[in-house]
Specification:
By secondary structure, this protein is of the alpha/beta class. Helices cover 37% and strands 14% of the residues. It contains 6 helices and 8 strands. A hairpin with a 2-residue loop joins strand 5 and strand 6. The longest helix is centred in the N-terminal third of the chain and has 19 residues.
Length: 174
Amino acid sequence: VCARSWSGRALFTLSLGSTKEPALYIAGVRSGSTAGTQVLLKLFERLCECVDTRGEIAGIKINDVLHEKGVVIIPCVNPDGMEIVSSGAVAAGSYAGLVERVCADTDSWQANARGVDLELNFSDGFTQTKRIAEGCGYTAPGPYFYVGKVPESEPESRALVRMCRSRKIRHSVI
């Protein structure tokens, strides 16, 4: 567990291979689709099978690669958002009132429980992104496009940045 969301849900980290400069794969940043999460879980399962059986993927001997390189997978960066989409505002816990106030149909919810769009809550380009979002009327917590008051204000985005800095991530795939 690399962090907990505002509603206390875990952000799980799955790792294989070398810990030096691993590749980071993340999904579930926005909660509208679970496909990316399912794909990463299946990828991790397949990698584990290959490690166990000394198998290959596309002709690549996975044990050989993982001896030199590593992989870190966070299959769901936004567990609160995923639960809000599947179970409604009540899944936001203490933020249920906020979700109910700002979104009549939680099927379209993309943000975390506090109504911050995690995809936009990073320091890179934050000022410009905030200016554009506010110019389009996204000035307060909501189902999508609210960037937050400051970059990395959310435990989920802070966890990703902390991991990238502490683990010296070679590259990331979203």
